[in-house]
TrEMBL record:
<keyword id="KW-0597">Phosphoprotein</keyword>
<dbReference type="InterPro" id="IPR052048">
    <property type="entry name" value="ST_Response_Regulator"/>
</dbReference>
<dbReference type="InterPro" id="IPR001789">
    <property type="entry name" value="Sig_transdc_resp-reg_receiver"/>
</dbReference>
<feature type="modified residue" description="4-aspartylphosphate">
    <location>
        <position position="75"/>
    </location>
</feature>
<dbReference type="InterPro" id="IPR011006">
    <property type="entry name" value="CheY-like_superfamily"/>
</dbReference>
<dbReference type="Pfam" id="PF00072">
    <property type="entry name" value="Response_reg"/>
</dbReference>
<feature type="domain" description="Response regulatory">
    <location>
        <begin position="17"/>
        <end position="144"/>
    </location>
</feature>
<dbReference type="GO" id="GO:0000160">
    <property type="term" value="P:phosphorelay signal transduction system"/>
</dbReference>
<protein>
    <submittedName>
        <fullName>Response regulator</fullName>
    </submittedName>
</protein>
Length: 192
């Protein structure tokens, strides 16, 4: 099945690889089934952030046994490492593939505080459980069709939190070349 709810573009996701990080077996199966129905070719499941970190590191090894991962869907509250821990670890990672990888938080714990925390950790999107195939497809398509640029600030690294692009009067001061970008991890290392 091609992913195309209400869109003119059609995507074939058979070469797409998604890591599902979820501690509840039923939700692992439900999310995996939805992704299979969308045509996602490779779905890997982990039960917590620590397992996911291992899997992500293994996926970055050239010629390794684990296929490179394109996107992460993670729960927020899990024993053995939370979604918060995983997102923070990803956004602070040295490997650019992991650092810039899209992350969708999928959680039943979606208080305003949780949503703000996930956004401020660097989640690209947030989905509330129980989730529907349509909502999941829309979030996937949102990331594919409208990728947001990443922002580096003293206390934040992740996708631009603004959803609307406004014209800026005067000189744009938000332009930063990759050579001038210093991450949180790099600033800590240079301070030591």
């Amino acid at each position: 099945m091609d992913l195309q709810p209400g869109r003119s573009a059609t995507y074939t996701l058979r070469d797409f690889s998604v890591l599902v990080v979820e501690d509840y077996d039923f939700m692992q199966g439900l999310i995996s089934s939805m992704l299979k129905a969308f045509g996602v070719g490779n779905i890997t499941v982990c039960a917590n952030a620590r397992e996911a970190q291992t899997m992500l590191n293994m996926s970055c090894v050239s010629g390794g046994a684990v296929r490179p991962i394109d996107m992460v869907l993670t729960d927020w509250m899990m024993p053995g490492g939370s979604g918060r821990d995983l997102i923070r670890w990803m956004r602070d990672h040295k490997n650019e593939h992991i650092k810039f990888m899209p992350v969708i938080l999928v959680s039943a714990f979606t208080s305003e505080e949780t949503i703000f925390a996930a956004r401020d950790m660097g989640a690209n999107e947030i989905l509330v459980k129980p989730l529907s195939g349509e909502k999941l497809a829309n979030r996937l398509l949102g990331i594919i069709d409208h990728p947001r640029p990443f922002v580096k600030a003293p206390s934040y690294f992740g996708p631009d939190r603004r959803r609307r692009i406004k014209d800026i009067r005067g000189k744009c001061r938000r332009v930063l070349t990759a050579e001038k970008m210093v991450t949180h991890v790099e600033s800590i290392q240079s301070a030591s």
